[in-house]
């Protein structure tokens, strides 16, 4: 893999784990120029078992609670000591990171087999760093018989791990529906659509907790913006327009809840019936929906979302910091 391709791998890591920086391009290129072949950042059994190759990976593990590096060390030692393929002893030490902070350095040898079934001895270096309740693990491995050649460079890469402040987007609220205090210190903007199953899961399982803990307590102002994925959800566009028509009559959030409760029935006739069920002025609502009066509003939301890098739903911006996918409640707590 040439340096340009390796840089692409580093970029991919940043996109997947936006709060982790690259592992220092200069060190990586030096390793490549020294003749090491990289498989990239997706560890697979094939990569680990391929003879004569070096594997690099970055993983994030949610610990669920605050832990110390010493507790991590004890956990790692227990796991490795009980793994038959790992040679003992396992060496560990707390090391300083170049950008500040510390990491746990773990080194050991592992007995595996290559792709032909022949025995292979690997030298593995791991660098484990904590950020809040997340543990980041940088793993670098190569054939044991050539490991001494690259040990210093591995250490340079491992100790170059640093955390980058997440990007904050200037997200427009447009004139979209808002729930919560206008003076709340935190603003969450959700880009969503009514036919998306992941959005439905979030609305049923996560949003009620955010509502109780943050919106109703005045801590969060919550904004809903439309992002219908029309290529895969044929009813999403008109459902989004219907939400806008309900908002005209001051009933967006009630209508929002009703649509997510009936995600499998979002045809136009049903959208009109839900409005009637809520006591909306049916003639006004139906005329709004049939005329496409809200189509431009929905298109504006989609254009804004695309400008912020949204490509799927749900997507969230918490005071400008992007979260993608049906995130658990804990992900919002961390921000």
Describe this structure in words.
This protein has helices at residues 3-16, 25-33, 45-49, 69-81, 147-158, 197-205, 207-215, 236-248, 252-261, 268-277, 282-291, 295-307, 329-334, and strands at residues 55-62, 91-96, 102-113, 119-131, 134-143, 178-179, 186-192, 220-226, 315-318, 321-324. The protein has 13 helices and 10 strands. With 335 residues, it is α+β, with helices and mostly antiparallel strands. The strands form 2 sheets. A 5-stranded antiparallel β-sheet has the order 1-5-4-3-2, sandwiched between helices. It has a 5-stranded mixed β-sheet with strand order 6-8-7-9-10. A hairpin with a 2-residue loop joins strand 9 (315-318) and strand 10 (321-324). The chain folds into 2 domains: 3-158, Protein Transport Mog1p, Chain A; 178-334, Glutaredoxin (3-Layer(aba) Sandwich). The longest helix is centred in the first third of the chain and has 14 residues, at 3-16. Helix 1 (3-16) runs antiparallel to helix 2 and helix 8 runs antiparallel to helix 9. Mean pLDDT is 83; it is low at 1-6 and 17-53.
Topology (elements, then pairings):
Elements lengths: L2 H14 L8 H9 L11 H5 L5 E8 L6 H13 L9 E6 L5 E12 L5 E13 L2 E10 L3 H12 L19 E2 L6 E7 L4 H9 L1 H9 L4 E7 L9 H13 L3 H10 L6 H10 L4 H10 L3 H13 L7 E4 L2 E4 L4 H6 L1
Parallel strand pairs: 7-8
Antiparallel strand pairs: 1-5, 2-3, 3-4, 4-5, 6-8, 7-9, 9-10
């Amino acid at each position: 893999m040439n340096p340009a391709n390796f840089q692409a791998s580093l970029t991919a890591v940043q996109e997947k784990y936006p709060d982790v920086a690259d592992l220092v391009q200069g060190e990586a290129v030096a390793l490549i120029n020294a003749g090491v072949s990289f498989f990239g950042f997706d560890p697979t059994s094939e990569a680990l078992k391929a003879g004569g190759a070096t594997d690099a990976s970055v993983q994030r593990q949610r610990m669920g609670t605050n832990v110390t590096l010493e507790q991590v060390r004890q956990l790692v030692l227990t796991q490795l000591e009980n793994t038959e393929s790992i040679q003992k002893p396992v060496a560990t030490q707390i090391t300083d990171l170049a950008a500040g902070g510390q990491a746990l350095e773990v080194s050991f040898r592992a007995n595996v087999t290559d792709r032909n079934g022949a025995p292979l001895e690997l030298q593995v270096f791991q660098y484990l760093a904590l950020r809040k309740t997340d543990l980041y693990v940088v793993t670098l491995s190569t054939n044991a018989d050539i490991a001494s050649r690259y040990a210093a460079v591995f250490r340079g890469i491992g100790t170059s791990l640093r955390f980058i402040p997440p990007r904050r987007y200037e997200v427009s609220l447009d004139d979209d529906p808002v729930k919560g205090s206008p003076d709340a210190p935190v603003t969450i903007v959700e880009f969503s659509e009514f036919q998306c199953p992941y959005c439905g899961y979030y609305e049923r399982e996560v949003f009620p907790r955010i509502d109780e803990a943050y919106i109703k307590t005045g801590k969060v102002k919550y904004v809903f913006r439309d992002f219908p994925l029309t290529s895969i959800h044929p009813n999403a566009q008109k459902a989004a327009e219907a939400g806008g028509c309900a908002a005209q009559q001051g009933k967006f959030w009630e209508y929002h809840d009703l649509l997510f409760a009936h995600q499998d029935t979002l045809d136009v006739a049903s959208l009109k019936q839900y409005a009637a069920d809520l006591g909306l002025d049916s003639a006004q609502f139906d005329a709004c929906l049939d005329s496409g009066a809200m189509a431009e509003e929905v298109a504006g939301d989609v254009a804004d979302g695309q400008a912020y890098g949204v490509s799927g739903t749900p997507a969230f911006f918490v005071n400008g910091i992007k979260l993608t996918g049906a995130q658990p409640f804990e992900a919002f707590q961390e921000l």
